[in-house]
Amino acid sequence: MSQHALRGMNDIRPPDISIWHEVEKCAHEIFPRYLYQEIRTPILEDMSVFTRSIGDTTNIVEKEMYVFQDRGGKWVALRPEGTAPVVRAYIEHHGNPDEVVRYYYMGAMYRYERPQQGRFREFHQLGAEVLGISSPKLDAEVIHMVDVFFKHLGIKNAVLEINSLGCPICRPKFLRAFFDFLHKNEDKLCSDCKRRMEKNPLRALDCKNPGCDALTREGPSIHDFLCEDCEKDFDTVLETLGLLKTEYKVNPKIVRGLDYYIKTTFEFTSNALGSQNAIAGGGRYDGLVRLMGGPNVPAVGFAIGLERLVDIIKAERNLTAPVLNRKGLFFATLGEKALQKALVLAQQLRNANIPVGLDYEGKSLKSQMRKADKMGAEFVMVIGDSELEKNEAQLRNMSSSTETTISLDQILQALQSIPA
RNA sequence: GUGGGCGUAGCUCAGCUCGGUUAGAGCGCCAGGUUGUGGCCCUGGAGGUCGGGGGUUCGAAUCCCAUAGCCCACCCCA
After folding, report:
1. So what's the ipTM on this one?
2. How many Å from the CA of A4 to C1' of B7?
3. What is the mean pLDDT of residues A233-262?
4. Within a domain: residue A31?
């Protein structure tokens, strides 16, 4: 244990890596159907990209960001989330606010937190942002796309919860009423919520303490304070979700941890995880582009937590044992000449997209057969002196344990003529 | 930042309560059993500063202390 990856940072290796590949492939397949294009932004940004956007009093900015000065003295930060960098890139490259831009991204994010199940200091998000459309129908379509993505991966127990946080016009009225309510009932609140009351009262909605939970359910609801626009838009979102057959649960307690969200907010949760049960979250953030120095452009986005997603996929699949289907070929050679011949033939097969293994050290045939079996080869080609003389080899089918003699010049044809 | 749990082979763990000869098992890995044939089986082998450090003791994986780490939960979030 002399060297260890940093706390909260993990190596992603086989066999898990294949699930990651699957998830990535699925994203590249589905998101472009909705006209999203991939964007890759730097992992490191000027610190202000995040402090200005996420909100000074959020946990992320207050104590979770990896921040340091580079050698030139500039304050930089490892990105703790994906939206702000995408917005920064949007402002940098797109001058026309009438243009609709749709981006998706995936990559590592960093937050200095205490690790626990489903939460790490380096984690990966798959997200998307749409800039330039204010219609709530888009909100619904974005959410629907996430749902489609999950279904495509075979995820069954993801639940969508949705809410409206109101806008800068109506939210302050609610906040005042809610604060008054908390203040009146201060003696019933847990110590954490007493603290939250002053700083960020909305957070009390999120409290899992049974007493606070029951209390805030009795209190004023954001939905009684929504202005006409917000209420109409929220109805449209729900209506459109119905149209698209996406099941949802309205939950007035969905409060997001970043300050820039307005109106529609949503989370997908799963009971297959531990206490970190959110697998995706997002919402509308119409004011952010302006706030970051760009034009006044409406926007919607979301992010999916990939570690958690992979966890769920593993949990849901664990019931069925994986089936090993053999593929590829292993050259079992006897003698230096045969090995040389195999090295050359191996390249031909690899060029034809066939996985090929061989032994370089002149091990016993038994040993080579074991290697072939372990790599999961469908065929083994045995080449020895007698075969070399006749320019042929024994082709062994590892599933049926049958062997045929084939010409060394016709390996490719022979392999390709066998139905997979 | 707060609380609880855990550290012995690549992996999963036994041994620790009641300190005592070369620290074990299963799986995995390598080799042999058939000097030209895999899986099953049999035999053998490699692999461990018992997290690192300090202390008690004739003697510490085992008892004590303090450290770094891992896990889980709170906080918060993906």
Report:
1. 0.87
2. 15
3. 91
4. yes
